[in-house]
Design goal:
By secondary structure, the protein is of the alpha+beta class. The protein folds into 2 domains: 117 residues, Alpha-Beta Plaits, CATH 3.30.70; 234 residues, no CATH class. It has 9 helices and 15 strands. Strands 5, 6, 7, 8, 9, 10, 13, 14 and 15 form a 9-stranded mixed sheet that branches. A 4-stranded antiparallel sheet has the order 2-3-1-4, covered by helices on one side. A two-stranded antiparallel sheet has the order 11-12. Strand 2 and strand 3 form a beta hairpin. The chain is globular. The structure holds 1,3-dihydroxyacetonephosphate (13P) (2 copies) and magnesium ion (2 copies).
């Protein structure tokens, strides 16, 4: 059976500051999704949150980029924003960048990851959701899942993964894309995806069958808005088992935290910390950046789950390691490499300070 899995997310108001989500917003989101399911538009849905970002996980039969699905999600975010405004939550409606819906939520603020798939006999999917970081945060873990035998032993010992995977990489500044066949082109690909603020992995495909293995939200809020409104806080869908990495191989990259951009005011580097859904309330210096993982088995489009995948003792060391990395980076205060380089800062006083001091600069 062909099913579309759509994850559409937005920050429509933080509680308190940017750290969490008020339960009334989730209740409103639930009621919008329940209506859409009752009307037959959705097969199933799950509403969750990652820090201050509201997540609609939806299944339906309408394919990707469907305007009815996008419009329903947009309207749901609007209803939740109304609740956020009543509670005077922080940054109510933050990610809804236009007043009216215009056919597709892409380019209007929300993050979108969608895939149409042929549901297999067993269809495990993991949905990763991050807060306080930018699209591009998935580059390193996706590389490890689908290209690195030290992470994914299936690449070596499973006959149906041995052919490798194809990566679709987007240049978010020039709005263009390129495909890489892995493993033979990994050195070329790493030249690009090693710079995640510019090149992001959009999707991954099995080279055994051509089927989609993973897709991510790659929307860049600051490029859409032309100013800083909040971080992208991206999402990523990964299919597991069979011709894809096993569930444990999909989760394994997060056992070794890596550094991503985001954190305080979107302008700092910090460790991507794997946490349970309940434990996802980025407080220290508005962070550090978080990732949660919701696991489902699909059954005729029904979302059987979620299992809270990082709610496990096996990720305790990763969390401790991430806190040690956070201490080390915080030690640098306003200095790089904690603070982002000048050209990647989400906001800066540099033009004003430079203007004020211009006359005091003397030629050397
Ligand atoms: P099970 O025997 O529990 O199905 O596990 C098989 C496997 O490949 C785990 O990665
Ligand atoms: P969010 O993108 O999660 O709203 O965070 C914004 C911010 O500036 C935190 O300091
Ligand atoms: Mg926010
Ligand atoms: Mg957020």
């Amino acid at each position: 059976m062909k099913v579309t899995l759509s994850v559409i997310k937005a920050d429509i108001g933080g509680w308190v500051g940017h750290c969490s989500m008020h339960p009334d917003l989730m209740t409103e989101g639930e009621s919008c999704m329940a209506k859409a399911k009752k009307s037959g538009l959705l097969i199933d849905y799950h509403v969750t949150r990652c820090g201050d970002d509201l997540q609609f996980i939806m299944t339906h039969k309408k394919g990707i980029d469907n305007s009815k699905i996008h419009e329903m999600a947009w309207n749901a975010f609007q209803s939740c924003t109304a609740v956020a405004k009543k509670l005077k939550l922080h940054g109510a409606g933050q990610d809804l960048l236009s007043d009216a819906f215009s056919g597709n939520v892409k380019g209007q603020g929300p993050g979108v990851a969608e895939m149409e798939l042929n549901e297999r006999e067993a269809e495990p999917v993991i949905i990763f959701m991050a807060d306080k970081t930018a699209s591009g945060a998935w580059n390193l873990p996706l590389y490890e899942m689908f290209c690195d035998p030290f992470n994914t032993i299936g690449l070596v010992i499973s006959a149906n993964m041995h052919a490798g995977f194809k990566f679709e990489v987007h240049d978010v500044k020039e709005s263009r894309r390129i495909m890489f066949n892995c493993p033979e082109e990994i050195y070329d690909m790493l030249v690009f995806i090693g710079a995640p603020s510019r090149y992001t992995v959009k999707s991954v495909y099995s080279r055994e069958t051509g089927e989609i293995a993973s897709t991510s939200s790659t929307q860049k809020l600051s490029l859409i808005a032309g100013r800083y409104v909040g971080k992208d806080d991206p999402v990523c869908i990964v299919r597991a088992q069979g011709i894809f990495p096993a569930v444990g191989e999909v989760l394994e990259p997060f056992a070794r935290p890596h550094i991503v951009e985001g954190w305080m005011r979107g302008s700092h580097n910090g460790p991507l910390t794997p946490v349970s859904v309940k434990g996802c309330n980025p407080t220290r210096f508005d962070g550090p950046p978080r990732v949660i993982a919701a696991g489902f088995q699909l059954a005729e489009g029904r979302l059987v789950g979620p299992v809270d995948m990082f709610d496990d003792v096996a990720f305790n060391n990763a969390r401790q390691m991430a806190m040690d990395m956070a201490d080390m980076l915080r030690r640098h205060g306003p200095f790089e490499p904690h603070r982002l380089p000048l050209d990647e800062m989400e906001y800066t006083t540099m033009p004003q300070v430079m203007k004020k001091l211009a006359k005091r600069f003397e030629k050397l």
